[in-house]
Every structure is written in C-alpha cells, then in structure tokens.
C-alpha cells in the first residue's frame, strides 16, 4: 500500500511539472508570435511608407521640372510649355505659400488620374483632377477637384492644415489659371474635417441650384465657416482621410484678371532665340518680350535681313539715357547718309528725305560698342518724342496692347447627379 501511494504521488508531481513546462512553452510561443507579428507589421508599414515616399519624390521630380519651365517669376502659367510636356491640362491651381501648385486635368472617368500623373505617366501619386461631371473651366455653380493625400506633404495633403485657424487665416486665397488667359481669384468659404463620401452638399451636383444656394448648403454642414457667401461659383478641394472619410476645403469666386498664357515662350522667334527687350520710356524696369529674333546684321546681306513689323519699334537702354541713345543713333544715321552720298556722287542733303511708312528698329545694347547698325536702307531711325509716343501713333507701347474680350460662361442646367469621390 505504501509503495502504491508513493508511486501515485510521484506520478502526480511528474505530471504537474510536465504540464507547467508545456504551459510555459506555449506562453513563450505566443509571445514570440506576437513579437514576430509586430515586427512584420512594422516592416510592412515602414516599407509602405518608404515606397510612398519614393513615389512622391518621383512625382515631385516630374512636376517640378515642368514647373520651372512653365511658371514665370510673377507666377503666370505658360500653357504651351505644359502641352509640350504632354499634359492635356487646360487650367492650373495655386494656393500661395503652400505646395498646392499643379496643373489640373480631367478625364471621362475619375479613375483615370488616380494612378497617372498629369503628363500620362504611371504614378501612385496620381494627379490633381477635376470631377468628370463638372465643367473644366469652373463655370458650374459647384466644381469638385480631387487629389491624393501624400505623406510628404505634396498633392492635397495640406488641405488637412485648414483644421488650424492660424493656417486658414493666412491661406484664404486660391487662384485658378485657364489656358485662355484668365486668372480667377477665389477666397475661403468653409472646411469639412471628416466628410462622408456620400455627402450630398459636396458631391451631388444639382444644376438647377444657383451658386449662392450651393454655398449656403455647404456652410450648413461644414465644420468651419469663413466668409459669407457672395454668389460666386464654388470650388471644393477634396482629399481622403484614413481612406474612409474626406477632408474638403471650399472656396468661392471673387474676381478675375487677364494674364499672358504664353508668358515663358513669348519672344521665341524664327531663329529659336528668346528675345527679352524693354520699351524704354525712361524706366528701365518696363520690360516686355518681343517676337522678333535676334539677327547679326553685320554677317548677312541687306536682302537677307528680315523685315520687322512697324508696331514693334523698340529701344533697349540699360546703361545710357534715352537722350544719349537718340543722339548716338542720329550720328550713326548722318554718317551712313554721308557715305551713301559720297558713293553715289550726290550730296547728303538730297538723300535726307525720310519715308514715314518704313518699318524701323533701334536696338541699343547695354554698352555703346554693341549698338546695332541700321538694318537696311529702307529702315530709318525712329525715336520717341517728348510725350513718350512713337511716330505714326498717338499711343504709348502699353496702350497698343489690346485687352482680350471677357468670356461669359454658359448657364448650367439639368437634373441632379452624384459622383462617388475617389480614394485619397
């Protein structure tokens, strides 16, 4: 009996020890599994973050390279440069002091530019694009524009910053440029922090509603409101938040002005040289681009010299005064007349008549040694009179510019329609 009891006690102790060892091993296995899962999750998110950063960097390279060639120092947009780069863009969006400074594109389907940039290249960063149901010239009462929420702060990521009052108060202005030369000014209307993708006020288009009604409906549902509705057309910028909600910032139209949509390539002549000249009226800062090519008149014959159109009568004066330039030009003309008279055996006075209908160009380079010669015998020297006018016209160069006629958008009509916003 005693021996049996001892065996039984031993078995119980052994089994208990074995169970504890198994439990311990299982705990270690569970802990190791959790650690492994955490490491894999971190690796996955880190890899995704790095991948998105690389994608954003590649997209930034594409956009910045075109930006350098298409955007002037005064932030006007040259659409001929954009089109040469391969984008069908007809407009450009710009919010000063932010990274929102991109060409706008539009397709028949909103999914097209989810993974393509504005130049047609495959890119997870996508493009900033106009809702496929909206007018591309922003003439609808409400236009929705979509863009990805990139972790590096590019595309539409900065829309989230409008949640801060200090940011919103200093970034109220937005501009949209169109390829027909209109620069449209918008001001901040309202902000949605976590809008539903099915939000009717934002994403449902009812062409029967006026812009004023659209603005009031948006402000009724917005998280933050700013300026009172002024009746101007509304543009809503939309990006994703956690892939389930949408951050939306809305602006309303204020006014518009004209700009030169070929500002960076204006002056590209037949010889492929960009000419930048100043119409001199005593102010060296009055700079204009001309479409005439630079020609070395000393290296070609009179027959080869291209004739300059009469309106483009210009002077360039960066180092000497206008009076000195006029005097120098007159001296050059007198010397040439004297030489011609000597060669033909006639007096200089007999050849002093001037054909008022001749096209003329005076070009004064920064130094006296570089003053250009008269193009040909039919070209005469012309200097501005005391009033700042050129001969043959009673207008200054600035007055010769004709304003483009304002365009009137067609009214939007039709039944309400809705669009499911793409992911951010």
Task: Describe this structure as you would to a colleague.
It is a single chain. The protein is of the alpha+beta class. It folds into 2 domains: 66-262, Beta Barrel (Sortase, Chain: A), CATH 2.40.260.10; 267-408, no CATH class. It is 29% helix and 17% strand. The chain contains 7 helices and 13 strands. The chain has helices at 2-70, 79-84, 165-170, 200-203, 211-221, 322-344, 397-400; strands at residues 91-94, 101-105, 128-130, 142-146, 173-178, 182-195, 204-205, 224-225, 234-241, 245-258, 276-278, 287-289, 417-418. The strands form 3 sheets. Strands 1-2-3-4-9-10-6-5 form an 8-stranded mixed barrel. Strands 7-13 form a two-stranded antiparallel sheet. A two-stranded antiparallel ribbon has the order 11-12. A hairpin with a 3-residue loop joins β9 and β10. The radius of gyration is 35 Å and the shape is elongated. Mean pLDDT is 74; it is low at 268-302, 308-318, 347-366, 373-385, 388-392 and 402-413.
